[in-house]
Design a protein that fits this description.
Strand order of the largest sheet: 3-2-1-4-7-8-9-10
Structural class: alpha/beta
Largest sheet: 8 strands, mixed
Bound molecules: uridine-5'-diphosphate-glucuronic acid
CATH class of the largest domain: Alpha Beta
CATH superfamily of the largest domain: NAD(P)-binding Rossmann-like Domain
Distance between the termini: 58 Å
CATH architecture of the largest domain: 3-Layer(aba) Sandwich
Strand content: 5-15%
Helix content: 40-55%
Number of helices: 17
CATH topology of the largest domain: Rossmann fold
Shape: elongated
Number of domains: 2
Amino acid sequence: MRIAVVGSGYVGLTAAACLASLGHEVRCVDVVPERVAAIELGQSPFFEPGLAELLSSALAGKRLFATTDLVDAVVRSEITIIAVGTPQGLAGIDLSFVEAATGSIGRALRDVSGYHVVVSKSTVVPGTADTVMRPILERESGRNVGEFGLCVNPEFLREGHAVADFLNPDRLVIGEWDQRSGDTVARLYETFACPVIRTTLANAEMIKYASNALLATLISFSNEIAVICEATRDTDVQTVLHGVHLDQRLSPVVAGERVKPGILSYLWAGCGFGGSCLPKDVNALRAYARERIVDVPLLDAVMTVNAQRPRSLVDLAEKALGSLRGATITVLGLAFKPETSDLRNSPALQVIQAFQERGAIIRAYDPIVTAEPDLAFPGLSSERHEQLLGLSGGVTLCATKEAALRDSGAAVLVTACPEFLSWNWEELCSIMRQPLVIDGRGALSDVAWPVDVRYLEIGRAPNPAFLSRALAG
Ligand code: UGA
């Protein structure tokens, strides 16, 4: 099929490259000419495993084109996918990019002669396709919906796994104005074998929010158990949650083997969730409910618990060091989760800010977030540069773990990057001013710590007996 994708961020560009890899002819539209130029060269403007390879092969096969000309892309296509950002506004979700893109697509529809379906992949609150997008499309195109199609087709892509998630989806959700719209969108994915939910526009919008709200709730639930463990002698949250995971309703035994569903990875305690989706989507759903005079105490609590986590990690360090004033602290891991360079809403930024407020001097190390990661794409990533500038206020971003840890007063792990597990901690602790490791993710609990190293982790009661590996083992 011929498809236009408006917006070349994580969702838009991944969808475009993957749809092209399925054999469709795809035109990516973006308002930033430098971004379009980079895509035309097969460069991904952000770090996403496998995406650059897909882009190059689709470009070479002439199945993918990038352009700033939205009208041309829409006119040449049967389906236009909206994949622009929906940032958090002051009073809920900010739909201004969706409205602008929808208006432009509506105007372009005037030049389209055949049947055309407009599809929203942007994450929008329930009712947006029907009450915001449909009126704009009808007004700008001069046609009634039905003459053109309208669908909501949310994505469930995780950063760092976006390509694999797109190509091997758990489910396809197609919210449809009418059957013809839905049938057209279903054809995009006819090679996929997963379950397909054909439903209303609003259900499709709500499924996306409910999915992300569940993930956030599991994390905050785990963190609340951690808080109780921290106040309870002889408990540690990792052992407690491991015990919870072994309930066969959570990890069934199939053919004699224990299956560990991916959802369990959200039932671990840490220093909070972040990223561009979970916090924004839970807040958007809360604001949406408030507008409808509906109380959502659970979702409110999910965000309250999450907001407290970074600070509680800093409290742990302060207790261990006595005072943080003038202390050099090494923050390990900056991105909101491992295997990405994305700093958006990263708990690490809040941890750093709380340390700085208490007078600490911050060094940071992250295997993927480096000081000048985007020079290959000048002008492309102003948002990313802003993130880094925001971070650089008083923070020394170190290129090596040794530079980050030499003479440091404490190592504080905020993001569970896999490489931290393979480090020679005995050697690294020996170059620190004092060997204190504070683990905000429980990621290093299996390290055989030398006796002179003080290892503290979140969710563990401050019981000296439990600080000893011998006893814990
Ligand atoms: C999330 C959802 O997982 C996707 O299904 C959804 O499509 C996407 O948002 C979106 O709305 O576009 P992502 O933002 O990439 O994807 O983040 P996750 O991998 O879910 O991580 C979110 C937070 O949960 C992170 O702060 C991370 O530290 C935490 N997390 C993640 C865990 O606690 N455990 C994990 O196994 C993974």
